[in-house]
């Protein structure tokens, strides 16, 4: 879903696309892109920022019981920003062919690029080498190289690489605890970073990180990315039936944030994020637990008090059943 949002934003912004897959045809992924919401209200109307006031608006908002929380700001689930960024998309509809075909798209489908049959001594897999070579050719031919003379108006190339590290690419990172091609993906990422640093291009790479057993290797892959996020779905886990997470479908973990041309990266204000897939929208919100409104409270019921009093009187004790009221 994140990759589809990334590609859809490129189509709406008239950027050029490059989609690389090993299983699904790139054209099938492009046909499933969500439709943009092009109404005037969603695009041109500025977002109203919520006011976090510490003072109650009127006398009716004054708390009678939990008065200690009266001066605390209210929790805002939505991630509000100071300016409008990007577009909104309707995940229940697919993008119109006229809008999708207006953007130029380059495709890389691994079954259409046969690899070499003879063994090589390169640390990069043949599939990754072919992908890197295809990317390099497009960057140089289409004028995305920064060092090339500008003969026409510049544009941005959005690169989407789907499910790298899987067995479909000839890699065994997700198949074995001790993979034979341990450094194939990291070597490819080094080459990809070198291409992106000298070109007008940005890439999104998806990896099935939950299938990679080597945590040290996964840490190396994360550090090779400028920005890394991980989606943890509640499907099939204990949190799926937990009432605390009933409003969400999973957690979003920020593993790496950009720190280009600076000594330290700026930490996000909120690290606890959750996502949910609505009927028409994929939303990311701050994770905050709802108040505990269950009927079970940590007080001694009347039945327990009566039973404790009976036991105490039978034992000859003169104290009451509630030890907190004994003097």
TrEMBL record:
Gene3D superfamilies for the chain: P-loop containing nucleotide triphosphate hydrolases
GO cellular component: cytoplasm; elongator holoenzyme complex; transcription elongation factor complex
Superkingdom classification of source: Eukaryota
Keyword Cytoplasm: yes
Subcellular location field: Cytoplasm; Nucleus
Primary site of residence: cytoplasm
UniProt-listed InterPro entries: Elongator_complex_protein_4 (IPR008728), P-loop_NTPase (IPR027417)
Pathway: tRNA modification; 5-methoxycarbonylmethyl-2-thiouridine-tRNA biosynthesis
GO-annotated biological processes: tRNA wobble uridine modification
Keywords of the record: Cytoplasm, Nucleus, tRNA processing
Pfam families for the chain: PAXNEB
Keyword Secreted included in the entry's annotation: no
Role description: Component of the elongator complex which is required for multiple tRNA modifications, including mcm5U (5-methoxycarbonylmethyl uridine), mcm5s2U (5-methoxycarbonylmethyl-2-thiouridine), and ncm5U (5-carbamoylmethyl uridine). The elongator complex catalyzes the formation of carboxymethyluridine in the wobble base at position 34 in tRNAs.
Family according to the record: Belongs to the ELP4 family.
Official protein name in the record: Elongator complex protein 4
Lineage: Eukaryota, Metazoa, Chordata, Craniata, Vertebrata
Gene name linked to the record: elp4
